[in-house]
Design a protein that fits this description.
- This protein has helices spanning about 5-10, 15-35, 40-45, 50-55, 65-75.
- The chain is built from five helices and no strands.
- The longest helix is centred in the N-terminal third of the chain and has 21 residues, at about 15-35.
């Protein structure tokens, strides 16, 4: 086992796929920690909610680049936490 499931499965661009998956998980965690809805997060990210949701459900299969995932993460990290 290499520590990269995508490499272990023999998929091309395994490092990119793993990075996208890790960033997607980080974004999902941020959305939860900040108390945001997907709709709120999509507005902050400058995306349609369905596009953001699709990218977060299967980040390794999304058409988003690592750079785009990074920009979304950076935008969300700046958002103050919402009170319930």
């Amino acid at each position: 086992m290499s520590g990269n499931i995508f490499r272990d499965l023999g998929l091309p661009n395994a490092d990119v796929l793993l990075a996208k998956s890790e960033l997607g998980l980080g974004i999902r965690d941020l959305i939860s920690e900040k108390g945001l809805s997907v709709e709120d997060a999509a507005v902050i990210a400058g995306m349609e909610p369905a596009a953001l949701l699709g990218a977060l459900e299967r980040p390794h299969r999304s058409g988003l680049s690592i750079e785009r995932f990074d920009k979304i993460y950076e935008a969300l990290i700046e958002v103050p936490e919402r009170k319930p």
